Amino acid sequence: MRRxxxxxxxxxxxxxxxxxxxxxxxxxxxxxIIIIDLTDNLDKYLNRQLxxxxxxxxxxxxxxxxxxxxxxxxxxxxxxxxxxxxxxHSEITAAKASGISFYRLTxxxxxxxxxxxxxxxxxxxxxxxxxxxxxxxxxxxxxTPGADRYNFVFAAERGRVxxxxxxxxxxxxxxxxxxxxxxxxIDYPTYVLTADKGDYKARRGWALTKGALHVIPSDxxxxxxxxxxxxxxxxxREAPTExxxxxxxxxxxxxxxxxxxxxxxxxxxxxxxxxxVERALKLAIPVTCIIIALFGAxxxxxxxxxxxxxxxGISLATTVIFLMLIQLTxxxxxxGLIPPEFAAWxxxxxxxxxxxxxxxxxxx
Length: 364
Known about the structure:
Shape: elongated
Structural class: alpha+beta
Radius of gyration: 26 Å
Largest sheet: 6 strands, antiparallel
Number of helices: 11
Number of strands: 6
Strand content: 15-25%
Distance between the termini: 26 Å
Strand order of the largest sheet: 1-2-3-4-5-6
Helix content: 55-70%
Order of helices and strands: HHHHHHEEEEEEHHHHH
Number of domains: 2
């Protein structure tokens, strides 16, 4: 009996209306982004002599990234149009006459927004995988000009991070390397490998000389250090030309991998403010799905004034303002004018405050 009370036919009706609009918007916006991107870059891809099937597959991998960015907008559109339709058809009035408050009526929409938030978190972890595959298909990872590179950090596979003082790709030599792998305990310990020099041989990989391996089993156990004259690191599979590739973008790294990359960059003296903002946004944007529903629910009650056109206009305007606010706070946080993590959450805080005030003023 209690389950029926919590999930009544009216709840299923409201949730189905929300989910239909959300699904169309969450898939429709990425399709529009794909068309615009394809129009701008098709000549470039064809000049690379890429097969058309390969280009098409690359855009299939582009869908998670484009969906992740528009999830809050999809929730806003679904909230505004589903509640707006209930308002125009006097269904909200009928529900209130039956003793159902506005808050209780819109509860399924907030449940839908929570599901959308979870979906956005999952997409955020899927995006680095699909973006890497897309970059490979489109041959985006071109090597930097020249044969030398200095003082850089490289995020490798298996959670390993390289900090290299200098690299000459043409001769296959590097100097001053530190390799760190974050562990999980005694069975999979953290270690830091340092070496003065490294030489690359085809088919054999990297031979490191004059260094030490520091094994850190746990916080409670003492570190163990092994010095060596020469060492062959079988896990360091990257060729010199691969190490010359441009650094990975935040979209190519998951939350944990990006955290390791930021830590390594900060230890090497680099500025990681922009990356810290991007890392915080990986959580802030999914949470926005819930906050935007809080903002959109009272906003939707006014869409009956101008019908669908008014609803589209107010939703688009809100989306544009929100995206502009994100870009503004990213710039401010990236420059270190305010804490980067705080900058990522400012748009959410602003919309949560406005939404709370608007929701409190709605007639229940």
